[in-house]
């Protein structure tokens, strides 16, 4: 088989399916594994036990999927450049700031469906194919793989940066047993720039390429199921789901490309909506209005917790105090703690 021609065909098929770019890497992730283990040793994974429970499978792809010899890495732009700019949302304290990737449809299924289509196209060409697809859904070192596959480099904020598209894109992988030609790993182009490090509201980027998840707003508002540490609440501002600050200041994002996926356009006006409107949602409304959204997976209690913190950071007005007071005695103890904190902010 002419694997070089097949790789060229895969590039074409990926474009037809809607991917922004694909590349191919080998399965030697030794260096990335060493970086991961140093990070874990420092306790920077907070309570994300899944980061270490799979052991070496993260950096030994052949242990996760037997027979794997190559990884096809794909990226898909997600930014709807027509929405209200994130930096503007941060200035409007009565409104919600939602990480841009979460405004529309949940990317997990969308990415996996596209990856399966690509794998099936390959299978139609070569016959039975050993493969498995992933998109933020298993112990896979997506960023290191993308870097090795030539899709970009890992920036000092730990996100992958592409020189022609910035960093607003999703990643997905096909582990396969076909010995395709590999792409060259991307060179590092952050240079001496450290704009992302001081831009972090909570100081979570403790050093280049080192994120303390326990301080990261994305972790605190999404992965974290418990209380948000009190000393970090004020810095969260109106960020109710994730945080884009380190990407917002990255010079490479001047090259951000508009997503061609209409499913990533905002739902429920989440790019421009009042905190009080979201706080008024009942649990049934939350489940209905976040159906098909990545936001749904945090659950209603974390949603209320995040909104309570944001309302505590908003400019004081009677409607906010009233909403917080009215809900205080009808929520879980965890949420109540954050509502009481928010009320104290408005009593000062």
TrEMBL record:
<comment type="similarity">
    <text>Belongs to the QueG family.</text>
</comment>
<comment type="pathway">
    <text>tRNA modification; tRNA-queuosine biosynthesis.</text>
</comment>
<feature type="binding site">
    <location>
        <position position="216"/>
    </location>
    <ligand>
        <name>[4Fe-4S] cluster 2</name>
    </ligand>
</feature>
<feature type="domain" description="4Fe-4S ferredoxin-type">
    <location>
        <begin position="178"/>
        <end position="210"/>
    </location>
</feature>
<dbReference type="GO" id="GO:0031419">
    <property type="term" value="F:cobalamin binding"/>
</dbReference>
<dbReference type="GO" id="GO:0008616">
    <property type="term" value="P:tRNA queuosine(34) biosynthetic process"/>
</dbReference>
<protein>
    <recommendedName>
        <fullName>Epoxyqueuosine reductase</fullName>
        <ecNumber>1.17.99.6</ecNumber>
    </recommendedName>
</protein>
<feature type="binding site">
    <location>
        <position position="136"/>
    </location>
    <ligand>
        <name>cob(II)alamin</name>
    </ligand>
</feature>
<feature type="binding site">
    <location>
        <position position="193"/>
    </location>
    <ligand>
        <name>[4Fe-4S] cluster 1</name>
    </ligand>
</feature>
<dbReference type="InterPro" id="IPR017900">
    <property type="entry name" value="4Fe4S_Fe_S_CS"/>
</dbReference>
<dbReference type="InterPro" id="IPR004453">
    <property type="entry name" value="QueG"/>
</dbReference>
<dbReference type="InterPro" id="IPR017896">
    <property type="entry name" value="4Fe4S_Fe-S-bd"/>
</dbReference>
<keyword id="KW-0671">Queuosine biosynthesis</keyword>
<dbReference type="Pfam" id="PF13484">
    <property type="entry name" value="Fer4_16"/>
</dbReference>
<keyword id="KW-0819">tRNA processing</keyword>
<keyword id="KW-0846">Cobalamin</keyword>
<comment type="subunit">
    <text>Monomer.</text>
</comment>
<feature type="binding site">
    <location>
        <position position="246"/>
    </location>
    <ligand>
        <name>[4Fe-4S] cluster 2</name>
    </ligand>
</feature>
<feature type="binding site">
    <location>
        <position position="58"/>
    </location>
    <ligand>
        <name>cob(II)alamin</name>
    </ligand>
</feature>
<feature type="binding site">
    <location>
        <position position="196"/>
    </location>
    <ligand>
        <name>[4Fe-4S] cluster 1</name>
    </ligand>
</feature>
<feature type="binding site">
    <location>
        <position position="160"/>
    </location>
    <ligand>
        <name>cob(II)alamin</name>
    </ligand>
</feature>
<dbReference type="GO" id="GO:0051539">
    <property type="term" value="F:4 iron, 4 sulfur cluster binding"/>
</dbReference>
<comment type="function">
    <text>Catalyzes the conversion of epoxyqueuosine (oQ) to queuosine (Q), which is a hypermodified base found in the wobble positions of tRNA(Asp), tRNA(Asn), tRNA(His) and tRNA(Tyr).</text>
</comment>
<keyword id="KW-0170">Cobalt</keyword>
<dbReference type="InterPro" id="IPR013542">
    <property type="entry name" value="QueG_DUF1730"/>
</dbReference>
<keyword id="KW-0479">Metal-binding</keyword>
<feature type="binding site">
    <location>
        <begin position="243"/>
        <end position="244"/>
    </location>
    <ligand>
        <name>cob(II)alamin</name>
    </ligand>
</feature>
<feature type="binding site">
    <location>
        <position position="218"/>
    </location>
    <ligand>
        <name>cob(II)alamin</name>
    </ligand>
</feature>
<dbReference type="Pfam" id="PF08331">
    <property type="entry name" value="QueG_DUF1730"/>
</dbReference>
<dbReference type="GO" id="GO:0052693">
    <property type="term" value="F:epoxyqueuosine reductase activity"/>
</dbReference>
<feature type="binding site">
    <location>
        <position position="200"/>
    </location>
    <ligand>
        <name>[4Fe-4S] cluster 2</name>
    </ligand>
</feature>
<dbReference type="GO" id="GO:0046872">
    <property type="term" value="F:metal ion binding"/>
</dbReference>
<feature type="binding site">
    <location>
        <position position="243"/>
    </location>
    <ligand>
        <name>[4Fe-4S] cluster 2</name>
    </ligand>
</feature>
<keyword id="KW-0963">Cytoplasm</keyword>
<keyword id="KW-0004">4Fe-4S</keyword>
<keyword id="KW-0560">Oxidoreductase</keyword>
<keyword id="KW-0411">Iron-sulfur</keyword>
<feature type="binding site">
    <location>
        <position position="190"/>
    </location>
    <ligand>
        <name>[4Fe-4S] cluster 1</name>
    </ligand>
</feature>
<keyword id="KW-0408">Iron</keyword>
<dbReference type="GO" id="GO:0005737">
    <property type="term" value="C:cytoplasm"/>
</dbReference>
<feature type="active site" description="Proton donor">
    <location>
        <position position="136"/>
    </location>
</feature>
<feature type="binding site">
    <location>
        <position position="171"/>
    </location>
    <ligand>
        <name>cob(II)alamin</name>
    </ligand>
</feature>
